[in-house]
Amino acid sequence: LRKVESEVLIGQHSLWDNTVVLTGTWRNDKATEATGVGRSTTKTRRDIRDTLDPVYLAGPQGPYKTTADDDTTSYSIMVHTPAFLRDKLPFELSAYTSEADNFRPTGSNITIFNDTVPATAGTTEEKGFIVEGLDGKLSARFNFYESAVVNNRFETGALYQPAAILTGLAHQVNNPANAGYGVADVQAVMPPAGIIGSSGFQVDWTDPESATSNRNSSDTGTQDFTAKGMEIEVAYNPIAEWTILLTAGEQETVADNTYPEMRRFVDEFVLDKWVNSSFAQNYYIDSGATQTLAEKAQTGIVEAVQRAALQDGSPAKEQARWRYALNTAYQFGGESDIIPSWLGDLTIGGGYRWIDRTGIGFRVDTNELGDLALDVNQPFKAAKKDYVDLFARTSYNLPNDLSLDLQLNIKDLFNNDGLVPFVANPDGSMFYRIEEGRLITASATINF
Questions:
Q1: Using an 8 Å Cβ cutoff, are 152 and 224 in contact?
Q2: Is the CB of residue 237 less than 8 Å from the CB of residue 202?
Q3: What's the gap between Cα 128 and its chain centre?
Q4: Are 328 and 242 a contacting pair, CB within 8 Å?
Q5: How many CB atoms lie within 10 A of CB 7?
Q6: CB-neighbour burial class of residue 114 (10 A; exposed 0-12, middle 13-18, buried 19+)
Q7: Which of 256, 69, 216, 224 minimizes the C-alpha distance to 153?
Q8: Coil, strand or helix: which one is 299?
Q9: Which of 383, 412, 250, 252 lies closest to 323, judged by CA?
Q10: What pairing do the DSSP bridges indicate for beta strands 385-398 and 402-411?
Q11: How far apart are CA 10 and CA 422, in angstroms?
């Protein structure tokens, strides 16, 4: 059973006759989890025969363990055209900047150093400006943003290695192949206490062969994702009845900051003590004397972390970089000289949508470690797509203050119903989905 308690404080202040508007928000989220018998556990409740029993339905009642207690903040600054300039300029200009954080409880996890992993969180920074002119007929918004989702859980197996290495170090102290080394030499390459704690390593150095490890299964690594892009919205009303809206967007999402704590472990300890030292290169870690500490740490930790780090900069799949849309609508009204009155208060419109090529996979090539791996510089992409949509809407007044709305929508007028690749294998073979194609919908609504 998980609970999230939140506290929020919002403040806003304006300056110089609303020329500058300041907004700020503070929020605290505290996530707790309860364990115990109840509906969220698989333990058999022999004392309860009725699954509708209120005690059973209530779930675990405690004790509660705090899994996250995070503060997030956001702010925005909006600056409008000063009042003394508004009548002297052909347009009004507003500029803004903002930053916002959010929070998602993700359970209780620890790092390789036995520290608590922060909750998955997001942050977005935006800057832009808004232009309005032609007596309110034209408005345009240009927005530039950078968004990040940090502390996503990520694991490749490197976290499992320290526990095995620690027991191997202790168990092989008396191995004849390690003659010349003793307990003191092994103790000299013990990692920080946090590593020992997360590995659950227990040893009595008077009897090192009885050493055990019990890795904490809640340990994990993390990876961030960063998205950068821009948005443009232009709305134009040449006349009151006619609306034109143009939107365009660019976005590119890449992986970043993969395995930061494991990288720190490698840089601050593993390379020096477990790979490059004379002890590591000559101390065998298995009973058959087939693998040294340096060899196991290099392949199991260092190279595994390096492979993970190569994911930094890799773009997200199934994402189109550019998108455009142009929509327009014309309201003829109920008294038009062109449209017969029996068509009611008629509005017709349509739109054109264009979607850039979408990444669906990568080719395989030899990476920096000599491994065959996905090469982010050789992507497979699906074809560009475009669509035309139409709609018609009308309204009729009915007796007794009732009204009737009728609407007809045609999505994808030209019926793109073929096969579309959505996943590409490294050899270029692809998986396909059937596109929806033309969709015609009609609705009728009575308003009371």
A1: yes
A2: no
A3: 23
A4: yes
A5: 10
A6: middle
A7: 224
A8: helix
A9: 250
A10: antiparallel
A11: 43
How far is 60 from 38, CA to CA, in rounded Å? 5
What is the CA 110 to chain-centroid distance, rounded? 20
Look at residues 216, 183, 176, 219 and name the one whose alpha carbon lies nearest to residue 200.
Answer: 216
Both tokens assigned to 77:
């600054």
Q: Which amino acid is at 129?
A: F
* pLDDT score recorded for residue 42: 45
- Residues contacting residue 141 through CB under 8 Å, at least 6 positions apart: 128, 129, 130, 131, 231, 232, 233, 234
> For residues 199 and 170, is the Cβ–Cβ distance under 8 A?
no
Instruction: Determine phi and psi for 362, rounding to 5 degrees.
Output: -140, 150
Secondary structure element (H or E) that encloses residue 264, with its range: helix 260-265
Whether 137 and 238 have beta carbons less than 8 Å apart is answered as yes
The domain limits of the chain are: 109-121+150-227+237-316, 342-448
* Residue 313: C-alpha distances to residues 48, 223, 225, 255, 320 (Å): 54, 11, 9, 5, 16
Token representation of residue 342: 């029996």
Spell out the per-residue pLDDT of the chain, length 448, in tens.
Answer: 677 788 999 999 999 989 999 999 999 888 777 655 444 444 555 555 666 667 666 665 666 777 777 788 999 999 999 988 888 888 899 999 999 988 777 667 899 999 988 888 899 999 999 999 998 899 999 999 999 999 999 988 899 999 999 999 999 999 999 999 999 999 999 999 999 999 999 999 999 999 999 999 889 999 999 999 999 999 999 999 999 999 999 999 999 999 999 999 999 999 999 999 999 999 999 999 999 999 999 999 999 999 999 889 888 877 899 999 999 999 997 677 788 888 889 999 999 999 999 999 989 888 887 887 888 888 899 999 999 999 999 999 999 889 999 999 999 999 999 999 999 998 899 999 999 999 999 999 999 8
Q: In angstroms, rounded to a whole number, what is the distance separating the alpha carbons of residues 37 and 59?
A: 7
pTM of the model: 0.76
CA 346 – CA 333 distance, rounded (Å): 5
Using only C-alpha atoms, what is the Rg of the chain?
31
Cα(206)–Cα(276) distance, integer angstroms: 28
CA 260/CA 224 separation, integer angstroms: 10
* Helix, strand or coil, per DSSP, at residue 1: coil
